[in-house]
Amino acid sequence: MSSVTDTAGKNFHTRFSLILPAYYRAATDDRKFAFAIGIILSGQVDGLMRQSYQFSFGGIVDATPVVTIGRKFLADDDLSIGLTGRFNYRLGSAPSYSLVDYVAGTPMNLSTMTADGAMINVDFGATYRITKLGEFDISVAGAVQNILGGNYNTKLLSLFKTGNAPPSQNRSYGLGFSAYRPVWGNFTRTMFALEAADVLNNTNGSFFRLIHIGAETYWRSIALRLGLNQGYWTAGIGLDVHYFTLNFSTYGEEMGLNAGTFEDRRYIVNLGLHI
Known about the structure:
Strand content: over 45%
Number of helices: 3
Largest sheet: 13 strands, antiparallel
Number of domains: 2
Distance between the termini: 49 Å
Structural class: mainly beta
Strand order of the largest sheet: 1-2-3-4-5-6-7-8-9-10-11-12-13
């Protein structure tokens, strides 16, 4: 109990994801279509002891076969459209476990906390290069995730047969703008971007919580990144040598409904092997 109370007012978050196996065939100058298929495996744990000593705990494991197709349109390939179909199995913790259960001696195990189910869903996205401003290409983008809704169905697939559905994923909308310059002095692939993500899923909070601003540029094989995530600074550095990528980044995640309420600082390592 002393260990738990020492974390009052703090959030614990950890996440791991693996994309394996996967295949991607990119669109090129003479090929309009892109195609990708793979399996995404991920796990996430979140724990929060509030200053009122109310405790919440959540864990999620996802296994998701995914197929994506994309196509470029118009004379100069200004319009790109992509569609993703996926089957998502989720094992998640039941949301009812609390500090009272812990004090009462209710064990934290699969029989008391497990909920699992599956869903079939579709995501859609598009980008359109609207104009050229100096040396920069100006583009707009939009996306919709979980078009079919985000509730998991225990009848579609349930391994533990508890009758409880795992945490859902709400339908999400996103809108973004970018300015891209292929070459800028000694730097390449320079990008400035602004987006609003997860729109309509923060109805009781501030719109600024949905805003993400960032910039990225490359010096040879080194990527440099800087920006703001929900009002908190974010930065990153990466190495891209075609067959191997390694990225480090940090960002602040807003745990409240409004930007500036409660920051949870996170650190990310991303490793990619591309054959």
